[in-house]
Amino acid sequence: MIPCGPIRKALLPIAFLLLATAALAQAPPPPKYDVATETKIKGMVEQLKFVPPTGGKPVAYLVLKVGQDTVDIFLCPKTFLEDMGIAFQPSDIIQVTGSKIKQDNSDVILAREVVKGGDTVTFRFGDGKPAW
Fold it and tell me: Is 81 within 8 Å of 89 (Cβ atoms)?
């Protein structure tokens, strides 16, 4: 008779890998940049936030005040902001060029370019592919 202990120990990592792969396959795909929905907006930074706020691989969003409304702007991974030395503060006036998309039933703009003062920061190339 073959002992079950070593076989179970050998199969456990394989089973875990298969379950993890299946779980990832069911996650919704990240939003795609659509050049056809590209728009420009100008407003005041209300908040820079990271999702998730701690741990994991956070991504940076801006909450931009445009008139009486607020708009969520997806920028990039937090590490890209840090590597580029880019900072956004509440009350900064910026202009964003990006693709307006729906994410979880909310409007979000995927930033391609942000102009702050005389500086232009490119987050995506003209075709929408990420610069990070």
Answer: no
CATH class of domain segment(s) 35-122: mainly beta
**19-34 residues labelled b (16+ CB within 10 A) or e (exposed):** eeeeeeeeeeeeeebe
In 3D, which of 30, 21, 13 has the Cα closest to residue 74?
Answer: 30
Residue 92 CA to residue 117 CA, distance in Å, equals 9
Give the residue extent of every domain in the chain: 35-122
- pLDDT tens by residue, 60-107: 999 999 999 999 999 999 999 999 999 999 999 999 999 999 888 889
CA 90 – CA 83 distance, rounded (Å): 21
